[in-house]
Amino acid sequence: MTKSKIIIPAAAALFGVAAVWSGPVMAATTASPVIAEVAVDQSAANVIQSLADQAMAELTDQTLGDDVRRQKFVALMDRYFEMEVVSRFVLGRYWRSISKEEIDEFSKLLQNYLALNYANQFKAFNGEQFVVGSEMEKNKDTFVNSQFVRPDGPPVNIVWRMRLFDNHYKIIDVSIEGLSMGITQRDEFTSVIQQNNDDVSALTSALKAKTGL
């Protein structure tokens, strides 16, 4: 496996934890961008560019220890994702059966679970480029088109789904070549819960065991 093929799932893990999904992502190139009639601090596309710049600068540093890289991974999720919404989505219908405190605990475990599995793969970064394209609005969300450009293969198309929270754009989903990463994660977690008699605490316990939290 080449280094460029390794870095894609790493980026997907950071960028791809999802929230509410109501239909297929529309490619940003299919329509002209629509400007939301609200005052925002930064455009959705600029937020994605900032995330990409920060991730590449901080997570690809070869001198970092593994624990430090994972901490930086979690910090990026704190800054750029709306984690409560994300957590509710990946729990599916089961989030209604647990308390706000349990949701908060799950969010922390989810971030650390993803960091443990994927953060260190950013050490494999080897000259790939992330290119942010146009953005468009559909209903209450904004979609940002982008590509991950590899030196030894075709570019990977990535569409980010974003929503305004207190005039700040936060990521709630990302689709890579049409595949919602959040739906993929939800399916994995739902399977674990169902195998344990619909007990969400079984999933929480499993994540604690994996992350050491």
Write the layout of secondary structure elements.
Layout: H1 3-15, H2 44-59, H3 66-80, H4 83-91, H5 100-118, E1 129-138, E2 141-149, E3 156-165, E4 168-176, E5 179-180, H6 181-194, H7 200-211
Antiparallel strand pairs: 1-2, 2-3, 3-4, 4-5
Helix pairs in contact: 1-5, 2-3, 3-5, 4-5, 4-6, 5-7
Structural summary, described in words:
The chain is of the alpha+beta class. It contains 7 helices and 5 strands. It has a 5-stranded antiparallel beta sheet with strand order 1-2-3-4-5. β4 and β5 form a beta hairpin. The radius of gyration is 17 Å and the shape is globular.
pLDDT averaged residue by residue:
80
Succession of helices and strands: HHHHHEEEEEHH
Coarse shape? globular
> The biggest beta sheet, please?
5 strands, antiparallel
Strand content: 15-25%
Q: Over the alpha carbons, how many angstroms does the gyration radius reach?
A: 17 Å
Helical/strand content category? alpha+beta
Q: Terminal Cα separation, in Å?
A: 32 Å
- Counted by DSSP, the helix tally is 7
From the structure provided, what is the oligomeric state, counting identical versus distinct chains?
Answer: single chain
Going across the biggest sheet, name each strand in turn. 1-2-3-4-5
